[in-house]
Specification:
By secondary structure, the chain is α/β, with parallel strands linked by helices. Helix content is about 45%, strand content about 20%. It has a single domain (about 5-295), classed as Vaccinia Virus protein VP39 (Rossmann fold, 3-Layer(aba) Sandwich), CATH 3.40.50.150. The chain is built from 13 helices and seven strands. Bound molecules: S-adenosylmethionine.
């Protein structure tokens, strides 16, 4: 049975596909384009890998990432359960005449992956639309269909940002029991400790399955936030071993100031983003983070 979150996501992305398509390709420097920042990171992982023969993008939306990879002559498959998203992606494939771009309209849980495996799997803006049980099933599936030494890149809403944003999310954290664990993890990241040390941290407990978080941007029931260590540990138990963390949408000003002067926020944030590589100390100040893990040693 699919969760309410999944039903709401299908409904939302079916009705907002055109809006999403515009957002994905916008080059407005007065805004922060999170979609493009996430795609750029996946492309960086793709370029850094010694060999990649096949790519799977889960929740591929309007297909920009798949098309970008296919342009480089590598077979890329985008899977999305919203027909309207897939139709836009197929139109792009046709316009750009990309034979290596493939799209399937189905839930990732219903796709037939028999005898198929991928060297690189990405999931940008995806796990937040799953219940915790579905996310666990999804990570099991990734482990199964990822080739040995394959890379999995996943983005997540960042719960550590609740600590630094000084926003209503911060006040909500104060009512719970996880503040100390969140600060501890944020401090470790801010002092750039290595991946092995991070993995040994005891993270905050997961958000309650019925938690009510403020709806920001996408009108779907509470989209869970995770901390980097929570995801690293969940994947590590599946022999998906952390390679790199990467900050997305770095904040140089508090959200209240951002609300008053969005263009100032965007200008600072876009500048900081140019320093994202190897600067995990930005992660506590980023509303999203990316995690790259590799299967096996
Ligand atoms: C926030 S959008 C991100 C789209 C794209 N990855 C991007 O970054 O632009 C999330 C996408 O995941 C898709 N999605 C959610 N649950 C899914 C599922 N179970 N199987 C396939 N696609 C799903 C939605 O339809 C939506 O297009």
């Amino acid at each position: 049975m699919t969760s309410r979150k999944q039903e709401e996501a299908l409904d939302y992305f079916t009705t907002h596909a055109k809006e999403w398509a515009k957002k994905a390709i916008s080059s407005d420097r007065g805004k922060v384009n999170v979609i493009q920042q996430r795609n750029q990171y996946v492309l960086k992982v793709f370029e850094d890998r010694s060999e990649t023969r096949s790519v799977l993008d889960v929740g591929s939306g309007t297909g920009d990432l798949v098309c970008e990879i296919a342009k480089q002559g590598v077979s890329a498959l985008g899977v999305d359960f919203a027909r309207e998203m897939i139709d836009i992606a197929l139109q792009k494939k046709q316009e750009m005449q990309l034979e290596m771009a493939h799209f399937e309209c189905c839930s990732i849980f219903d796709c037939n992956f028999t005898e198929r495996e991928f060297d690189l799997i990405s999931a940008n803006g995806f796990i937040e639309y799953l219940s915790q049980d579905e996310m666990s099933d999804f990570f099991d599936l990734v482990q199964k269909i990822l080739a040995p030494r394959g890379s999995f890149v996943v983005s997540s809403r960042n719960r550590l940002f609740n600590i630094t944003s000084m926003s209503p999310f911060t006040k909500d954290e104060l009512k719970g029991k996880d503040v100390e664990a969140l600060i501890n993890e944020a401090a470790a990241l801010a002092s750039n400790v290595d991946i092995a040390e991070l993995l040994a941290i005891i993270p905050a407990s997961l958000q309650e399955p019925d938690i009510k978080l403020a709806r920001t941007g996408v009108d779907v029931e509470s989209r869970f936030q995770f901390t980097p260590v929570q995801l690293m540990q969940m994947l590590n138990t599946r022999d998906l071993n952390p390679v790199e963390l990467y900050p997305i949408h770095i904040h140089g000003v508090p959200p209240t100031f951002k609300g008053k002067h969005p263009e100032v926020h965007a200008s600072i944030s876009n500048l900081l983003q140019t320093h994202a590589e190897q600067n995990t100390e930005f992660i506590p100040f980023s509303s999203t983070f990316m995690l790259h893990v590799q299967k096996g040693d």
